[in-house]
Specification:
The chain is of the alpha/beta class and 136 residues long. The chain contains 5 helices and 5 strands, in the order βαββααβαβα. It has one domain. The mean pLDDT is 89.
Length: 136
Amino acid sequence: MKIYTSYFARAGQLKRNGIEPICIAVGTPKYFTGCSYKRLAPRRDMFYMNEQMYRREFANIMAKLNPQQVLIDLKRLAGRVGNVALCCYEKPSDFCHRHLVAEWLNQSLGIEVVEYEAEQAAKTKNEKQATQQSLF
């Protein structure tokens, strides 16, 4: 199973590419039809914290979780699709708790979790370079 991070605006693209979007936000937009995994969501009161406080509070949330159980749960939610994207609202360049979750999974389980767009851009670039022909 491959785990990505992304945001709700990419949910349709994720599904078309065989990736199950999973909401890890407090709430979901009306158009989102994927499943939710609220154990990785921040608390509402955290929205008003500065980044340092937010990081500390979110670390406390993750410290109460068993990373192995989270992985088992995500595999179950992935179903036959196999790959998942942990989604919330923020754009990839914005600070977001999904990036903290990615770091946590990497440190706890050694799983590489990347932002979906970043991986797709790198893959496209590599494919272009591989198909580019020499003039000589």
